[in-house]
Every structure is written in C-alpha cells, then in structure tokens.
Amino acid sequence: MTITYHGRPRYVLLAAESWDAEQAVVERDTTQRDLEYQFLVEHMDGGLLVIDPELKITDASSAAAMILGRAPAALVGTPVADALPATTHSTLLSSLRHVLRSGEQAQFELTLDEENGTRLRVRAVPWVEGLALLVRVSYEGDEEARLAEQTALEKARAAHGRIEVIRLTVRGTVTMVEPEFARLVGLPRDRILGLRFVDLLAVRDRAIARDAIERVLSGRSEAEAFDTRLLCGGAEEIGARISIAPLASGYAVGGAVVIVTLDPGTEAA
C-alpha cells in the first residue's frame, strides 16, 4: 500500500514477511559481493590499497601491508602519504587528486630502497568512493639484467644466421614472422601472416607437425620439437628443426612461439 501526501507517494506499507524476504536478499547479495571482493584482493598480482576522497586508507590487502611493512589494521585510517615511501609526496598527492577529479587512471613509481634499487610501482584507478591503488615491487637490477640478456640473445641469434622465430595464434596460424624468414621461403610477409604454419612445410611432414602444435596449443605439452622440411620457392625444400612452446595468457594458452633452426649451410637470402 502506498500512502500519498498532496498526491505524491510518501510511504509504502509492506507485510512483515515481504520486508524480511527483501532484507534477506539484500544481505545475501552483500555477503556475496564481500566474498568476491576478498577473493579478488587475495589473488590479484600485487597489493591493493583503497583510499577515500580525503586520501586516507579505508582498506588494505595483506599483500599491500607486507610490501609497506605495516599490519593491515595499522594502515586503515592512515593518510596515504604517511603509508607510502616519503619521496616525491607532493607529486604523488597531486596525481591522486587528479585521478579523483578526472576519473582518469595514473601510474607512477616511488623509491623503496635506493641502495638496492627497489621501487614501488603504483597504479591509481577510480573506486566506488575514492581510489584504488594497485601496488607492486620492482627491482631495477633484475629488469636491467633481463634487458641485457634479451639484447645479448638477439645479437647472438642474428650472428648465428640460421634461427628464425615465428608466433602462432591459438588456431595455429601465423601472427608474427620476421622478414628474413619470408625471404627464405620466397613468400611476401603479408601473405604468410594468417596462414596455418603447417602449410609452410612439406606435405609429408604436416601430420607430425599438426599433432605437435595441437598438443602445445591444447596445453597437453610444455614443448615439442621435430625435424621437417620447409617449402621454399614452390618445389624446393629446406631441412629444418622446429621447436614450439606455448605462450601463456593468464591461466590459458594464448598462442605459441616457434623456433626454426635451419640445417647447417642454409642461409636466408
């Protein structure tokens, strides 16, 4: 029943049973959202800080607390500037206020330990009432070492001259190929993109290759390798060793990387 005042709805009368049932639904939905939130927080990559419009922390994940060296309960109610590293606070607070005003995301880094090269990467995103800060620790030394190693591998591969790298989609079609490989097989690079990789091999080798690729893309094999012959310029064939490994995409396989090692004496044109 709706009670009006000057012709406008003012109050609604409900049976007690209907009110209790509605409240039960609300409580159940709230509990479910809380469980989903906790699951997300504990399984995300890095830590989470939730801050209000006054830039005070209202919630902190255990991972974020561990990164900052504080207990989660001790972080709640603390100004975010007091919880994060002391460097560049003015820039930090300015960035956070900009996110609050504009609704845009922002990313920045703070120094955790200058001597060890440890930095805190922070990503600020709009939240229901305030902001969420996704925090992760990065190590400059490790990143520099990985970059140096990758550069060295690329130089060594170029000097070797008989190794080509190809990337496949989850359907086994070519999504990335280098110009040298295209010249080797005598096809325009644009024509190779989108082709099934097995179509670049001698017909008699395709069944073995197809099975190996399917095992990798289905997640049943961590890596496969086999000998084959590449079709080159139509009828000509070039001996090669193929290895294939999956590309992870979250918890699923998002494609594969193929390494083609040509027989000694074979050079890309």
From TrEMBL:
Domain of life, source organism: Bacteria
PROSITE patterns given in the database record: PAS
Residues of the PAS domain: 33-103, 165-220
InterPro entries reported in the protein's UniProt record: PAS, PAS-like_dom_sf, PAS_4
Protein name per Swiss-Prot or TrEMBL: PAS domain-containing protein
Originating organism: Sphingomonas kyeonggiensis
